[in-house]
Amino acid sequence: MGTFTYLLPLLCVQVYGTYCEIMMKIAKDKQKHFLVGLLLSATIPFIGVYGLLLCLGAGIGKEVYDLVSKRGTPEVMDAVWTVFPGAVVFLLYLLFGY
Question: What is the pTM of this model?
Answer without folding.
Answer: 0.70
